Write a sequence for this structure.
């Protein structure tokens, strides 16, 4: 039987890019936005240092990072920033490591296999859920992602982080920053990248350190050797130059200009409140659609934990329960390939280690009208592939 959504919709998204990394460019972006880039110039020139310092200052202003925090541009995106924090700060006390998807698990691998810490307590949960946050001991160092990019699951609040904590809280916030009003007083290390919520070009990360984190850096020396690109101190003191725009490695001045353009756009539209509102509007559009969908569901089980940026979707039973795991992957591959061929959605398959499903980026650089135009195409694609799958197309 042919489903009533088998006819292609009439409206297409103006911008079909819904990838969760690198994420869509800001509305109206063209390569002309990079025309002022300091290409061919040294990043250590007066002008180059000023441009890098502007990125730091603008990030601080848009995000509302408190006075006393230090902010730096570092190599290797959010991964490099978080690795730098792990290698530079840990080892003084036990660690509570939280994980509910692939990226949190990768930090646990670093702690156990590479840093070889012996006092690591893992609090984990399967895709779609959170661990019991009430079990976290904030007198230990705490490692967590605010939003699990691969699961669409976010911590619902900061109530579980103690105000009088003895340990440090290290937060990988790359899929939450610029979409959540982060509780800086509850955090000590925050990292993110330009390629997520800002829609910028990749390769560089941001590292923000609280005064408590700086005090740890200047007082404590880890027992392992630190690679050059991880070194935040010199002679037992914080390397101030890093937090004034003198980067450890050579940054791409094109990527710097792209980040600058995104931050200026964020400021023009109203700063962090406007960015949060845009992301919430995107999520609410998907939420309304899921509420009436015959087949789609959120991967995050608890509505309070659903991310407004990495919006991860699964398929409802009983249809899904009749399929093997490889068949589910094949179905999603057929669905996403079909939508890409139609030019209505690119790069929306779930992360490779996540359960088979879809992942839509809902950050502020996405227009709500584009998501609203996409959703009927998801229905069309699903029922088209399901109908063809009955004769072997998707399997």
């Amino acid at each position: 039987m042919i489903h009533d959504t088998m006819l292609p919709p009439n409206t297409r998204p103006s911008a079909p890019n819904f990838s969760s990394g690198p994420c869509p460019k800001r509305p109206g972006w063209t390569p002309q936005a990079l025309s002022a880039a300091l290409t061919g110039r040294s990043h250590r020139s007066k002008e180059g240092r000023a441009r890098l310092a502007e990125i730091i200052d603008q990030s601080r202003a848009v995000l509302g990072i408190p006075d006393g925090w230090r902010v730096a541009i570092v190599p290797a995106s959010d991964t490099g920033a978080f690795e730098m924090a792990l290698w530079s700060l840990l080892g003084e006390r036990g660690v509570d490591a939280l994980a509910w998807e692939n990226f949190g698990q990768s930090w646990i691998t670093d702690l156990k296999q590479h840093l070889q810490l012996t006092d690591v307590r893992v609090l984990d949960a399967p895709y779609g859920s959170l661990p019991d946050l009430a079990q976290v001991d904030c007198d230990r160092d705490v490692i967590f992602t605010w939003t699990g990019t691969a699961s669409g699951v976010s911590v619902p609040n900061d109530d579980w982080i103690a105000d009088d904590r003895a340990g440090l809280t290290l937060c990988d916030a790359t899929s939450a920053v610029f979409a959540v009003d982060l509780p800086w007083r509850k955090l000590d290390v925050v990292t993110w990248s330009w390629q997520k919520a800002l829609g910028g070009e990749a390769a560089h990360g941001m590292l923000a350190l609280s005064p408590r984190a700086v005090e740890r850096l200047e007082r404590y020396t880890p027992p392992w050797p630190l690679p050059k690109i991880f070194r935040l101190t010199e002679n037992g003191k914080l390397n101030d130059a890093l937090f004034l725009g003198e980067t450890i490695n050579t940054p791409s001045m094109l990527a710097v200009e792209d980040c600058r353009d995104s931050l200026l756009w964020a400021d023009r539209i109203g700063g962090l409140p406007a960015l949060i509102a845009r992301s919430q509007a995107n999520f609410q559009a998907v939420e309304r659609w899921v509420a009436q969908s015959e087949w789609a569901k959120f991967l995050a089980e608890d509505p309070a934990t659903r991310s407004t940026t990495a919006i991860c979707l699964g398929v409802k039973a009983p249809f899904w329960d009749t399929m093997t795991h490889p068949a589910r992957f094949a179905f999603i591959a057929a669905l996403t390939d079909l939508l890409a061929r139609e030019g209505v959605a690119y790069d929306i398959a779930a992360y490779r280690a996540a359960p088979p499903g879809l992942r839509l980026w809902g950050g502020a650089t996405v227009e709500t009208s584009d998501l609203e135009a996409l959703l009927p195409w998801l229905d069309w694609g699903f029922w088209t592939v399901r109908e063809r799958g009955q004769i072997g197309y998707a399997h």
